[in-house]
Amino acid sequence: MKRLFEKLNNHKVKIIIAACLAAIIVGELGYIVTSHITSVVKEKEAIEKFVHKNGDSAEEENKEEAPEEPVQDPDEQDMEVNGIVDKRPSASQAGEGRDLQGDPSMVNGSKIIVLDPGHGKSSSKMTDDEKIAYGWKKTSKGWGEWRHYKIGSGNVDCEGSGCNERVTPNGACWYPIGNGDRATEPDINLQNALAAKKYLEQMGYTVRLTRETNDENPSITRRLEYCYPNLDKTKQPDATLFLCIHSNASNGSARGSAYIQLDGIYDQKWITSAASYVNEGNKLGKLCNDAIVDGTSLSMSGNGVISFEPQLIAFMKSPVTCGYLEIGFFDNTADLNILRTESDAIGKAIAMGIDQYCNGV
Question: Model pTM?
Fold first, then answer.
């Protein structure tokens, strides 16, 4: 009897222990499940609050999207003329990103600035196909380009008639390609333009360069295409201004920086007021040149104004405010040293002058 009682007690103890263990396990499972449910509820509430505040974007971000096949923008494809691939970036590649039909001077809150580092590859080193690809033409006069458009036109070359026939001293309506050949100047111009681009972009501007290497030599007519969306001259120009960046030469004796002054009648399309076009271009040139003299070791050349070449091709064909800088004299040893060692400061000064112009200083 005593033995039976002990067996029953042992069995009862085991049952009690088992029941306790079961209770503990169930409690733990309940805690885990409850915690998970609470976490899910809190997460859902957080998502709902975020969606309510930000719209449907948060919910969309939680969906796994299938990768899309890349689509090449036709504007980003290289252009080919007679077998020569034109590597110029399209307007969208140069930073504007989209076509504008509203305010033509603004893109995502940023004004479009076209910088033209003058000259480039020597014409003697260019093949005929390269010349064609870069906008040069061959006539009975040789290789070159026309200085004007037909009166009132923005894309039809005058071909010697139907224009105002204004030309530079000893010049003509036809501009020979060889007149632009330089040895030292192209790289100086490019380095100054690249530095200006850097500082302008830091200020929030969109910048287009008419050439990016010294192995390019577009015609001025071709360079002016960067004033238009996607290089399309049939559309309204979307650039705020076009700035030519050059350096001067005068048999090694002269020194200093200046800008070329506009004057007279300009009758190309998009120029609604010749007087305003003159005033704005001269204002741009002066602001940039003054900033260069103030911010670098270059002196002022005379009064800072070159007044005998207001009929340059860029002035005669630009559809927007056009300035023209002659920064120092590359054939003067002292100026050349400054041009080579202070290009960053020169570029910064150019950017400051442009910024002052764009902000109505």
Answer: 0.74
